[in-house]
Write a structure and sequence with these properties.
With 184 residues, the chain is an alpha+beta fold. The protein is 44% helix and 16% strand. The longest helix has 22 residues. The mean pLDDT is 90.
Length: 184
C-alpha cells in the first residue's frame, strides 16, 4: 500500500507533460514511482495544480499511467507509431471548445469521462511543447530518467537540475582532473 506521507521528488514545476514523466525517478540504485497508488496521484495532482479540477481515484490513476507510458516512449522516440497511437487515444477522450463570452475568447475542455482529465491535460501539453521539440530533453546524466523543457535563453540546459545531476557531473570532472594531476 502506498504511503500517505508526501514524497519529495527531485524535479517538480516542469510543464504538466514533463511533470507527469517525472513521477518516476531514480535515487542511487532505487527506482521510485510516485504513481504507485492513489495517494501518490493525489500528491501529483496537487503539485501540478490539477487537484481543484480532478479527483484522485483508481481509474484516474490507471489513465494517468497509460499517458505517462506513452509519453515516456515519445520523448525518446518521437516517431514511435504505437506510442503516438496511445497518446492519440488519450486525446480522443477530450475536446477543446472555443466560445466568445462577454466579448472575450474563452476556451473550455470537455471530457467524455472526467477521469481522463489529468492524462488528457498532460498529452495536450506535450503537443504544445512540440512547438519547440528540441527543447524537450532528458537529463544528460545517463543514470537519470528525468525530463525537462529547456526554457533557458540560449537553449543549452543539459541537466534536470544543477543542484543534483549538474553538481554531480561537475564534481566528477573535478575529481577526474585532480586524480589526473596526482598521477602525472
Amino acid at each position: 500500500m502506498a504511503s500517505t506521507v508526501s514524497r519529495r521528488r527531485p524535479l517538480v514545476g516542469e510543464p504538466v507533460a514533463m511533470d507527469l514523466l517525472n513521477t518516476r525517478w531514480v535515487q542511487g540504485a532505487t527506482v521510485h514511482d510516485l504513481l504507485d497508488g492513489v495517494e501518490g496521484l493525489r500528491q501529483w495532482l496537487g503539485e501540478a495544480g490539477l487537484d481543484a479540477r480532478f479527483d484522485a481515484d483508481p481509474t484516474t490513476l490507471e489513465r494517468a499511467l497509460f499517458a505517462r507510458d506513452a509519453l515516456a516512449v515519445l520523448v525518446d522516440t518521437p516517431a514511435d507509431a504505437e506510442a503516438a497511437a496511445r497518446l492519440n487515444e488519450v486525446l480522443g477522450h477530450g475536446a477543446v471548445r472555443r466560445a466568445l463570452r462577454d466579448g472575450a475568447p474563452a476556451v473550455t475542455v470537455e471530457f467524455d469521462d472526467p477521469s481522463w482529465g489529468p492524462a488528457w491535460t498532460a498529452a495536450a501539453d506535450y503537443l504544445d511543447l512540440l512547438d519547440s521539440p528540441d527543447r524537450v530533453r532528458g537529463c544528460a546524466n545517463p543514470a537519470c530518467v528525468l525530463h525537462f523543457f529547456d526554457t533557458s535563453r540560449n537553449g543549452t540546459r543539459r541537466w534536470c537540475s544543477m543542484a543534483g545531476c549538474g553538481n554531480r557531473a561537475k564534481a566528477a570532472r573535478h575529481h577526474a582532473r585532480t586524480r589526473g594531476a596526482e598521477n602525472a
